[in-house]
Each structure stands twice: as C-alpha cells, then as structure tokens.
Design goal:
By secondary structure, the protein is mainly α. The chain is built from 19 helices and six strands. The strands form three sheets. The protein has a two-stranded antiparallel ribbon with strand order 1-5. The protein has a two-stranded antiparallel ribbon with strand order 2-3. A two-stranded antiparallel sheet has the order 4-6. Helix 5 packs antiparallel against helix 6. The protein starts with 10 loop residues before the first helix and ends in a 17-residue tail after the last helix.
Length: 494
Amino acid sequence: MKKIFILFTVLLVLGSACKKDFLSVDEKNPNNASSVPASFILPAALNNTAALLNNPYNYPFIYEWYGLWSISGGYSQDVNMTAYNLLNSSYQGIWSTTYTILNNFDYIEKNSTNAQNKPYKAIAKIMKAYLYHNLVDCYGNVPYSEALKAEAGILKPKYDDQKAIYEDLVVQLDSAMNLIETKPADAVEVGANDIIYHGDMGRWAKFANTLKLKLLLQQTGMDNRASYISGAITTTSSVGYLGAGEGAWVNPGFLQSTGKMSPFWETFYKQDGSAQNALTYFMAGQDACDFLIANNDPRKLRFFAPYAGTSIQGNYFGTVPLNLPSVTSKIGPGMLKAYTQDSPILTDIESLFIQAEAAQRGLITGDVKALYEAAVTASVLFEGGPTGNTANATAYLAQVKQLVNFDATADKIKLILTQKWCALNGLSPMPVWTDYRRTGFPDFIHWSEDPLKLNETPPVRLLYPQTEISTNNDNVLLQGTINTFTSKIFWQNR
C-alpha cells in the first residue's frame, strides 16, 4: 500500500498547501480552504478518528475502572480516578477532538453534492454517526442539530435530546446505506483515499448496518422500544453485518517515524523502539488476569507479558500498596504488535459479539452459538502468537466452564458480554463501559478499594468539559444539574 500519511488535524482551518503526491487532485488554488477536495480530507479525518479512539490516555478510566489495566507500583495513582471523582476538566479531549473531526466529516458531506460523490457523502455520514454516538454515550445531551454551523454564525449551539439524537443517527445511517445502493455507475472511486476499506462500498454498507444494530441493541433494556427497534432493524436487514475479516481498521501506511506510527503503539514506544512512559505506567488489571488464568485462556500471554515464566499478575483498582513493578505484568505482545499495526474503529470481533447478543435477544436471525464462537475465535486469532490459532480457540471453547462454553451456561447474555469485555482489552474501551452500564456485565469486577471513593461503583457519564462551559455556558446550564452517578445515559435502564 502506498504511504499516504497525513497529520493535519483541522485541515479546514489550516488550509495548508498540499504537495502533488498520492492525494493530489487538480486544484487551481490548493491554499484556499474552501477548495480543499474531499479526497484530501477523508484520510486525515479517518486517521484522526483512529488516533482519538486508540490513545489509551483518552480513556484510561475505562481500562482501569473495569479491571482490564492497572497502574504500575512505580507511579502514584490518580486520586480523583480512584475516588471516582470526575471533574469538568477530566478527559476534555474526547469532546474537543471529536467535534474537530466531526467538522471535517461534515465538510465532506456538505461538499459532496452531486451523485458522483455519493461514496464520499456516505462515508462522511457513517463516520459522523459513529462519532456522535460516542459523544452521547459519554455525555448524554450534546450539541447536534445546531453543531458544526459556525459558518452560519451559530457559535453557541443548543443541546439536543440524546434519545432524539440516537433516532436521527439511525436515519442518517439508513440514508448512507441508500447512497451506497444508489450510487451511479460513474461514481467517484474513493480508492486509496479510504484508508479503511480502500473504496469497497459494500463493506461500508455493512459497517453502517452494524453500527445501526449496535445503536438499537443498546436500547433493548428500555421500556416501550421493542417495536421501534425491530422495525428499524428490518428495513436494512438485507445489507448484512461485518463478519470475520471485515472489520473497520485504519492504516494509512504507518511509518517508523515520530507522529507517523500506529497511535496505540506510539503511546508505548518511541520511533527508535525505546519505551515511552506508558510502557512502565500501564500494567495488567488483576480482574483480567483472574479471568484469563481461571479459564486457561490461550490469550493470557498475549494480553499481558509474563513477569516470570508464564505467570501474569496485575493490581485491583485503587488497591494500596500496588504490587512492585518486578512482579506485575506489562501490556503484552498481542496488543503491542508493531509500529505498523492497524488502528481499530469497529472491529469484526466487536461486530460478531454484537450480532451474537442481538440474535440471542431475538432482534436478528442467526446461530447464536456460531456467532459467539466466531467472535471468540476472531479474538484468539487477532491476539496471535504461538497460541493464536483456530485449534487453540476450539479447544478453549470446548472447556466446560461457565464463562467460556456456550452450552454450559444458562445465561447467554452474561457469557457473550463477559467474553466481549475480555476480547476488547486494548482494542475498544467505550463498548466495555457501555455494556456494563446497560447490563451489569461482567459482574465480578473489583471496584475501587480507595476508602475515599464517592460511590460504590464508577460514574455513569462524563461531565461537560470546562472548555464548553467557558464558551457555551448558557446551553450547558439548560441541561440542569449533572450527577456523574445518577444522571444516566438514556439507554441505561438499570
């Protein structure tokens, strides 16, 4: 694949000159932001999305709260995190970076007005839906209908109802799938500017439908939503969902150079291969270690590096004192593969777990056991190494263990979501948080041992960032008093 790495974040603002290279198109004035083509913006926006999602420092609270990772004994624990004390200054980058990227996808959508540009418009709609659903899952009500309209003079956008946003995201995803289905024969070829599927619009349609299923599945715990959910799923059921090998992974052609490596890898390693602080800061979570050890999991030494022989050990969240670094496992080679490793957005692993749960709940047709086992197998294969093969996955799944074997457990939802929690370690933290909030699984997590913690269980949402309070305070105040433990996201019906 030709190297097409682009690092600009706010391309529309910078209006930077672009060299005549792989991304170049004929433009009379490439320095004029108003004339920047979608082919320039798309790869940067996709790459920046992956960088947002895959930098562990953006979502450390999820990895730590839910037992996947811990902090090394060589560092002091964040007292606000162990006390479940979220501030308006906590994780502000999720909000600001998301809206920056949304602006770029919105630009693509608004400037793809003719039929030939339907592929670009469809991708932009899909990615906007993905990013907005992440915002809702973090904050609840957010600016939506008036967002991204600074050029129209709307600098202080109103907040929309989170349930209404979700419903419109479903509409937008349907629209995107329709754009793909009806694109003309002479439609613009997105090609390598699409650093996920390289212009395969059939895959993009499945991505959209999988995301739609995810949004609807998250609402199954709510009252009076069954008819809406089943009706919405039926309209695009023929499109299908992402299967094994069809996940949405970003790779623009990562280079062994600062700022151009895979973002997850670069959090842990420098350009010359030496360690970044993250490699000695983030360690194994003991809940994850307990699960892997108890279930003879072939991924054990892929998720975490052994501190001695084949032994892994972490820390329970908030425990004092933490285990010494010499007897604590670091993040393992299954997560840290190479500077060229793909960056996940919506993986086939997650998709298969989504389908398994949806089939178990009767939302879609499908063999629940086959989907579940395909998801676990995909995870084992992804983690790789000597144990990362189908034979080991099959042997693992055959064990008569409640949280492994499909036939051995009565609670299939618990099984599916517990294995999903395990599989998404280091891949996608947001679904872990969402799944626990809506279902309570996994149900064995050791909550913070900090005696000063503000609640027995973690917060259910983030607070609106201080940056937003400073610039859009009137609309923030209209959202009322926000309590991080009781102001639930609309789909959390428990």
